[in-house]
Every structure is written in C-alpha cells, then in structure tokens.
Amino acid sequence: MRKISTLFYTIRQGFANIFRNKWYSLASVATISACLFLFGLFYAIVANFRSIVMKAEEGVTVTVFFHDANDRCEKEGTPHSPEQVPDELRMKEIGERIKARVEVSKEPDGVVFISDEEAWMNFASNYYGESYAEGFPENPLSGVCSYEIHLSDVDMQNALVSWLQSIPEVRKVNYSEVTAHTLSGVNLLIAYISVGIIVILLAVSIFLISNTVSIGISVRSAEINIMKYIGATDFFVRAPFVLEGIIIGLLGAALPLGLIYSVYNYALNYILQQFSVLNSFLNFLTVQEVFKVLLPVSLVLGMGIGYLGSASTVRKHLHV
Amino acid sequence: MSRREQQRIKKEQMIEEKGVIYLDNVHKVYSSGSPALNGINLSIKKGEFVFIVGDSGSGKSTMIKLLLRELKASEGNVYVMGNNLSKLRHGKIPRFRRNLGVVFQDFRLLNDRNVYENVAFAQRIVETPAREIRRNVPAVLATVGLASKYKAKTNQLSGGEQQRVALARALVNKPSILLADEPTGNLDPKNSWEIMKLLEEINEDGTTVVVVTHNREIVNAMHKRVVTMKKGVIVSDQEGGEYIEED
User: Fold this and answer.
1) Domains of chain A
2) Distance between B1 CA and the closest CA of chain A, angstroms
3) Structure pTM?
C-alpha cells in the first residue's frame, strides 16, 4: 500500500516538477528538440542517400561465360578439351556454388542462368528487331551460356571475380571495376560523414544539455538538500527527477519528429511533382520508411538524454 | 534472539549508559587541512535541552554536520541513538536521519508550496500513509500556532512564521532528537523568544533538543545546559550555565 502511494507520489511529483520549473523544462525540451531535429534531418538525408546508392549497387552485375565446343584456347589456338566444356549438369553445379559463395541480391533473380537461345534472342531483338529470325536460321551463339550475378554488396565483387576466373570451365568474366570502386567509395564516404556528424551532434547535445541542466541545479539543490536531511532515500529523491527527465526527453523527441514528418512529406511531394524525372533513377524513401527507424531511435535517444541529464544532476546532490 | 533484536538491545544499552548523543574523542580535519574539531568528548542524555555556543569558527556547525552524518569524523566515534555514525553505511543514513528533526537559520522551506504541503512533504518522504498525513499535519501546525495559515505560501509569511513551519516540519515525524542550527539567527527578539518557548515545550514532551546559537540573551535567560566551544574544543560545559563571550 505504502509502495503504491509512493509510486503515485513519484509520478505526481515528476509531472508537477515540469510545471513547477516550467522555464527550465521548456529550455530542456528546446535543447533536446534542437539536437534531435538535426539528428532526424541528417538521418533522413543519409537514409535516402544510402537507398539511392543501394539501388545503384543492385544494377551492378557480374557476367560469367563458359567455354563452348567452338572456342579455342587463347595460347595454343586449339579447341578446349571436353573436360573444360561444361555440360548442363556441371553448369547448374557452378550456379549453386556461386549462390553458396556470395550473398547475392535479395531479389529472386540474384543469380540468373542465361542459355544460348536466350542470349541470342536478347541480343538479336535489340539489334535487328523482331524479324531477326529471317536472317539467321541458326543460332550464332549456340553453346554460349552464361550466368548473370546481381550482388547485394559491391565490395564482394573483386573476390568473386578472382574466384570465378579460377574455375577451369569459365571462359570470361565481365564486370565493371570502375562502378564497383565508385560505389564502394561512396559507401565509405557516407559512413565517415555519418560518424563525423553524429559525433559532432552528440558533442553539441551534451554541451547544450549540461548547460541547461546546470541552470536547473540551483532550483533543485535546495529541494534535494531538504529531502536528504529529512531522511529521504536516494531512490525517493531520484525517482521524480528521473521521471521528469524522461518526460522532458520524450517531449523533446516528439516535437522534432512531428516537424520532420511534416517537412519531409512536404519536401518529398514537392520534389516528385517539380522534378518527376528524378524519380526514374533516384529511389527516395517514403516518410513511413524513414520513420520505421527514426521514430524508435529518436524516442530512445530523447529518453536516454533526459534520463542521463536528470540522473547525473541529482547524483551530484545525493551525498548530503 | 535474532541479530536485529540483539542490535536493538545493544543500542538501548548504549543510549542508557552514554546518552542519545555521545562523542568520543572526536577530531575533524577538512580536506583543506584545517582542523575544525580537536578531541571533543560530549554526552547528551535523553530528554536534555542543550545549548552549544561559541564564536564563528569554533566548530559548532561542524558538530551539527557530524551529528547529521553529513560529515564523517576524521578520528574518534560519534554515536547518535546508539548508532556509530563512523560505521554507518550510506544506504542506512536516510533511516537514521528519521530519528532527527532539523531546523536551520535560513528555514529551508519549499517556497513554491504552501504551509501544509511543506509539512506534509516530510511525512511523504518517510512514506507515511495519506490518511495519517491528513491527521498529523493539522495537529502539528496547531502545536506551532499556524493552523489557520495552512494554505498560505511560505513566502507570504513573516520570518517567525517561516521558522515555525520549519519547526512543524521537523516535528511531524516525531523525532527523538531535535537539532536547531541558529534557529533565531534571522528573527527579531519577539519571534526569537516565541521559537525558543516552542522548543522548550517540545523538550518538555520528551524530545532531546540541541540548539546551536549566538544569542547570548536567550541562553542566559533559559538556564539550560550550555556547552561552550572555542577553536574546535569544548572550553566549558555547565548545567544552567551562561554564555560568556571571551575577547
């Protein structure tokens, strides 16, 4: 019974403290809001950038060609031995090994087998139009089968290409080194910039919050002092202040989240309407996709900042 | 017999033999190196009224801080209600302090709350049920003569009235010992006397009262035990004594 009344007292005091020290509370909410607004804005930009890069990465493919009975060894100019020309079963086996070796794109066509007929059909229809069959009664690419590999991570490309080239049945591996290098570089750049800006934001947050908290100390120290002299336990002293800090943190997180939701939605609609051409090659995230991560992270950060700010302030005054 | 029971009996024996407050060769040196108390021996029996007097820097406030376990003795032992404060763990301090009522010169009231809330605050801290708080607070406010002003904000009260609220707050949890650190320091003579009369009444009801003061007139008029301190040592300890200021 006593514990329940203490719990209700703590909750009541937590809320009462916010109104009692409204200017301090407002300053704390504003500080946390400003930091989390910057964080949210930065996250939305980085998430979109990453999404665009990932879309570009999915377009990077490695194509593997196999020896066929007609092609010849580069050095000797003689036909390949029958062991080097894979049959259908061997080719399937190689396909399975590729799938097992690298993490391919999550899409269903991560590793696609292209038969000689499909290869000729794709090539001819692109270059000669639908009537290609009239000029070529036989398939000039007969026996030229390949695998198209869509990687989920372009960083894996080099290792995969080396491995593919070591397979005796493989005649040629087509890949774009420049694209992979560029995308890897962009990925690394985003990672560095993200870490850098997050560190700066955190440092700014801690600085601003510690300043705001120190303003509140003068109000709180007298109250904590009295409580301790009367015989309050550390928990009893700490609980209302910590609850107050958490509420302030949540408010500080909720406000920028609401603002970012509106601003992002407006900006996205504006860009898509005004620059519709961008949408065909840039993959912007919807507000729901951004908030799937931003909402919980911001709320936890807000609560964490509020908790740490209030707990550390109170702790300084507990040893009375 | 349980260990707790044994400890309780040991504490009671300690109180019986040595008093509710017992300082045994207590030294206090601050971290700056300056000595504040130098070999203090003092015993205060249950139900006594004691004045501790002395000039600024004599060690009076340090002694109060030691009794509240705000500070620890550098050497020697401080016993309050049979508890050896040198060995009292941090987690046990709140429960120990519930035996004490404290009154300060600057009142230390919560100015954003009214009289009733200031007194009830002390009861909530020791987790007194709400029904008992509603009964106890008006009763103690009546004792200090503030029953009609329970709704007033503390900053609307005179100095004397504010000290009465502080006294009510100190008394509401029915402490065994009341420590008053310069309780009349901010009051005019009339209000000072009223506060001292209240302290005397509280003492007559069985509470041990320790008053640290500079007020020579009051000390000399009340004929209580007077402990005089100078430069960290007790220079005199007399029943019904007087406060003699030395040059």
Assistant:
1) 9-56+182-316 (no CATH), 61-175 (3.30.70.3040)
2) 29
3) 0.67
